[in-house]
Every structure is written in structure tokens, then in C-alpha cells.
Amino acid sequence: MYALINERFSTFRTFTHVNALSCENIAGNVILSTPPWATSLPNVDSSLSLSISKETSPKTVIVLFKDHISANYEERTEIYTDGSKTETGCGYSVYVPAQNISIACPLPRILSIFSVELIAIKHALLWVRQSQVTTKVAIFSDSLSALDAIKHSGLYHTALVNEIIELNHQLRTAEITISFVWVPGHSGIRGNESADQLARAGAANTHIRRNHAIPLADVRSYLLKSCKDEWDRIYQSTDTGRAYKDLRPSVHDRLSEVDTRLGNSILLRLRTTHCRLNHHLNKIGCIDSQLCEACGIEETVEHYLMNCRKYRYQRERLRRHAESKNVNFDMRTLLTDPQVLRYVVEYVRSTRGIL
Length: 355
Fold this sequence. Notes:
The protein is of the alpha/beta class. It is built from 14 helices and 6 strands.
């Protein structure tokens, strides 16, 4: 048992090393120095999201945002944060227009955009602490998910959220009031647009900070994706299972299913051709002939579904169902289109019972 565990852990370390991920860079949990009941709750304002939708024009968004700022945050130091994730990298930004402060930093590519947005907010708080700002501060972010995680921090036991809660409490203790405010993204709001450009510049920077801690959730997602990519590479490089690969070219593709376990078992056997038809039974040495007893030709899945004269009445019923759904009556459609799969199962049940 211990040998198996050591083998699995060794495989994990090898895989993370090959994929440029050190086990030492995985972030552990951050324990708050102050008990939760004594920690200052963050002030999160996402009220603008209730009055702005995708259909709201950019001009209206800007007017609503300016009115919201003048009514609630006019005398505060404004800080805009943003995160960017592209195919080549990640980056975050902190922009303080009143002091002409522009910070753009690259981050490891495996981070999720959720983590990148939280990192941007965390570094905005670090900047406030280091710059000795003594006024009220409004930190603007266009990530509702990040702000929601901060607002409901008790539900998000992650290192990044805990770090933000800890920093916010330290600043509140120093009598610096922090407000986290949602700003509509990509709407022409100057501070947000500047932060967006800075974050994109950070993501384009190839000088990555290798020592940046990676949240465990991002490590898990990255490893799952990497394993699936490796599985897909092996899947596509072999010649086995060609009939199934014609229907599912990549493991990233998903074939539709029906509501019953028996129905899905029937569909899997048809898709793989590993079923109780004479062609397969002869191939594995169970019977001497691979010919259809009614037609005298190979009893393949295609012959069984499309041509066998023994089941012409059942097939005609299946054809009518396909026509009623306006789908083609061919092998690929019958085995992949979710609109007709249950009728294919009915066809099998009415002809062979089970394959």
C-alpha cells in the first residue's frame, strides 16, 4: 500500500516538474491573525450591476458610473485593478490616476482569471499600505466573481481571499477605510480602460515571476487539463478504436447520452462496434461466420442499423422519427444526434433486445 502511494506521489512530482510547476510553489492556506468574529468585514459595493446590463449603451453606463461615484466615493483615492489571461500568459494591473501610478506585472500562465483578479486587488491593498495613504480608498474591479468572493469570504476558504481580508483588516485598524466597488468593464470608463491596457501588457510580458504561489484550485484545474491533453495526444496517436474515433475525434469532445444506464450501454456498444453482432463475435472467436443470417453479408453495426432486411419495419419507424426531427438518416447522425438517440435505443430493444 505504501509503495503504491509513493509511486503515485512520485508520478505527481514528475508530472508537475515536466509542466514547469514546482510543488513548493503551491499556495497553502492563510490563517487569519485575527479571529473571524473580530475581523473587519469588507465593504463591497456591487449595486451598479443591478442597474446595468449587456444591453445598456456605453454612454448610459458612463453616466450611471459617474453619478454613482459622485454620490458615494467623490472624496476617496481611486484605485483601478484588472486581470488579463491570454493563451500565452497572465498579468495584473494596479492604476492610481490621481498619483499617476501604473503597475503591470506578469503572472504564471496556469492561474485562473479569477485568481488573477484577486491578485490585482491584493496588490492594490499592498500599495495602499506601503504608500501610507491616509484617506478613504475605493478599489474598483470589473470582476463580480472576485468581489463576491471577498464579500462572502466565509464561503471561500482560499489563500488569496484570506490575504485580502487580512490586509483589509490591517488597514481598517489603521483607520483607512477601504471600499471594493464594481465597475462595468469595457464600457469606456477611463480608469478601467487604463487598468485593462496595463493588465494586457503584463500578460504579454515574458518575464514570469516563478516564485509566485499558485492557489491549490488552479493547480488542480491545471493538472486535470494537462492530464486530459496528454490522454488526448495518446488517444489520437493510436490506430485502435477507429470506429469510435470517427464519432469522437478528441477526448475533449462529448457524445450525447440518454436517460437510462441500459440505453447508454447499448449506445456505447454500437459506437465501439463491440456488440453481439456476428462481425464482432467472429472477430473475437465466438462464432465461425461473420455473415448476417438473413442477408448473407457481413453483420456490422452499419448493416444492422441501415440495411438488414430482417428489421425493415422497425427501421422504417426509426426513419420516420428521424424525419420528424429534421435530421439525416445516416450512421453518424443516428449515433451522435441527441434528438434521435432514444429512438435508436428503442430500435435495438425492439429487434435484438440487447446487444
